Amino acid sequence: MSHSQNSMGYMVVLCIILYIVGVSIYLFVKFVRKKLDEARDRRFQKEHQVNPMAEAAKEKPDEK
């Protein structure tokens, strides 16, 4: 193998490794954002959860 073929092989391996690292970082960031969105949605639902019994109690005095 000549020097040019050797360095070209290293370049291909380096590109593949960089691609795998980049995709891994992208997937990790995507996973973290998804988990943060789910946590925010759960917190929002908990804060704005409507209690049906409280709604009924509010409506009854108005009807009288």
Description:
- With 64 residues, this protein is an all-alpha fold.
- The protein has one domain.
- It is built from two helices and no strands.
- The model has no long low-confidence stretch (mean pLDDT 84).
Features:
mainly alpha
Task: Please give a quick description of this structure.
By secondary structure, the protein is mainly alpha-helical.
Give the arrangement of secondary structure elements.
Blueprint: H1 3-47, H2 52-63
Unreliable residue stretches: none
- Based on CA atoms alone, the radius of gyration comes out at 29 Å
The assembly state of the depicted protein chains is single chain
Find the structural class using helix and strand composition. mainly alpha
What is the string of SSEs from the N terminus onward? HH
Number of domain modules: 1
| SS strand fraction | under 5%
**Major β-sheet annotation:** none
Total of helices: 2
Mean pLDDT: 84
Helix content: over 70%
Quantity of strands, as a count: 0
Shape: rod-shaped
Distance between the termini: 96 Å
